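Inverse folding, one chain.
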């Protein structure tokens, strides 16, 4: 299972970023090999559509699960179109959230907001 988590620093012990589309980095974790890869979010500073572009970036990386605090409506549609399941993170590090996911302790993210338009301007 390939899991993506928006993070603030390139470390598995990083706190989960408060933003999905504008997080500085993503942790891509493959639980089959316990491999963690960190990617820069090159769309974080986009004038608009950062969430949609970030969702597509994750789909391009064959992500199956996203763990995040919130998600915009358009990004959620892109993820749903790729059959990606989105879960609400718990307080703590990315590593804590991976453990919680593996132990079935995360809830499906249901709070989808309309997005923050012109956020990057």
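Residues assigned per position:
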């Amino acid at each position: 299972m390939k899991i993506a988590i928006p993070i603030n620093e390139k470390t598995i012990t990083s706190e989960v970023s408060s933003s999905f589309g504008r997080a500085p980095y993503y942790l891509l974790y493959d639980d089959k090999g316990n491999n963690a890869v960190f990617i820069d979010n090159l769309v974080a500073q986009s004038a608009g559509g950062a969430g949609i572009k970030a969702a597509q970036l994750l789909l391009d990386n064959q992500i199956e699960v996203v763990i995040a605090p919130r998600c915009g409506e358009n990004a959620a549609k892109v993820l749903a179109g790729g059959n990606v399941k989105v879960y609400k993170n718990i307080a703590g590090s990315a590593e804590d959230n991976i453990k919680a996911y593996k132990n079935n302790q995360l809830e499906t993210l249901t709070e989808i907001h309309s997005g923050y338009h012109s956020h990057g301007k």
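The beta strands are 2-7, 25-30, 35-40, 65-68, 71-72, 85-88, 112-113. Residues 54 and 74 are 11 Å apart (CA to CA).
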